[in-house]
Amino acid sequence: DGERTIQLRNNDDEILEEVVVFVPDGESRVYLNLHVPTGINHVLRTATDPSMHRLNDGVNYPYPIGDVGEIQTSRYGNEYYYYFYDWEVDEAELTCLGEVTEVMVIVSSTKGLEENTVNIFPNPGHGLYTLHTDFTSDVFLRVLSLDGKKVVYEKMIPAHAISSYDLNVQHLPDGMYLLQVEGAEGVGVAKLVKL
Can you list the positions of beta strands (E) in 25-163? Predict the structure, then answer.
């Protein structure tokens, strides 16, 4: 028994991490707690001859490590399996370390979700539009530029009993926009083109 230095190396044989652990005589479980980055051909080995068990017979590479990877070979060839058995690998929880940034997500398929229809006439148009929707209540309307900036936000009241709304965006530059209509019934989305 004794201390062993165990190293995680990359494909270029550079040490990514190393840890010194006490390994008792006989079969034992050793926790390395190494962070293994995404990549191929990583190597786990000892820094010096560790005087630990090696398998010489019945070696059959590759050996799967759960669904995160596999052991493909030994440093000394496919006839030997060295030292490390009964692997347990935990996948890291992903944590965002950067600043929180607002993003716009456009969902192109909403199978299984109830959709609210938004029809725009004329579209493309020159800034004066009529919206026909499934909404029967007052709605909040947002017009977003393609980079996600809100360029119009207003509450709209149905112009007729058939849930139509008048929209004037003549002040906006020509281009494509995303129209969101939100009411008590849910949200409807459509593309809006201004010429």
Answer: 43-46, 54-55, 63-65, 69-71, 81-82, 118-121, 128-133, 139-145, 150-156
